[in-house]
Write a structure and sequence with these properties.
single chain, about 350 residues, mainly alpha, Arc Repressor Mutant, subunit A, about 0% strand, globular
Amino acid sequence: VDLDTAKQELEEFIPHVRNISDSSIRKMAGRDLARFKQFKKQGIAVKFGRFSQKENNQIRKNVEEFLLITGIDSAEKLLFTSRYPEDKDTINRLKAEHLFCEKLSEGIPRPWRLIYYRARKMFDPNNYKGRYTKEEKEKLKKYHALHGNDWKKISEMMSRSNLSVAMKYSEIKSAINYGPWSKEETQKLRRAVEEVIRKRMETEDANSLSSSEKSHREILIDSEKLYQKLPWTEIEAKVGTRYWRQCKQKWTTILTNKMTKGQQLYRGTKGLQAKINLIKRLYEMKVEDANEVNWEELSNTIGDLPKAYVQAKFYKLKVSCVPFWQKKTFSEIIDYLFEEKLPELEEKL
């Protein structure tokens, strides 16, 4: 398929495809286009965003089956072949012979590249090694000075995953403040968020809207755009003294205070009622995975709040109330909260 045709055909499944590089489009035409068309016939849409538990299980199944077929020792050898130079040629030959790309993406309606990255994150033994020591942070700074943003090289030198070293460096690259936010920092954050939202709005085709639609559009900025996916690394750079996670958490707090007019919704009897409503609504939804929850809709159960606030409150609830929650599925956690915690909260109220 020539490049223009590939772009045209892929656009049906990936609206932002024209922002992707030509080399990536060529790869997607080979790896994804036929799969996407097959999923369309089955009435299945191409997905983006967080992977569900079901998709993670499918990746595990695909990897395990491929290891059985090929006899490759481990998922690490399969997905991080460059770490095993002596076996590299054999592994690459087996991957080509047994159609690794097709096998890995089987049953998952997403671009192959995202499935591959997810698999690497799931099966990288260097991905979950706990907190960085002071010595590791100093090493990371030194390696970055030598190798720049070559995270693959740095991750191998530190025996940490690419994602881990890149994210940790974003936290320690400057004099990050971990104390309370100053008035000046908060103003910088507000200005930074305002700038990125304005920029986003300007890039959209506002000229085609009528004057009445434009006035309605301003209202929508308040209710939706203020806590949709924002470019937090860009906002981090504008604030300068905080890393992106701190910026995101602080912005959620600012929005929550604005939207609730400063009321403490999670204190006293209001807090108990909010927890009760949250548990009941989650139980009624009967979903199997946290990614299937419509958090926007759920936030109205507690009040007009950003979904990140509600997600944070749910996380706190499961950690403090559900024993061994890490070993339970999402639906088991909800069942436990409904059967064991809810009666206790209602009695307390």
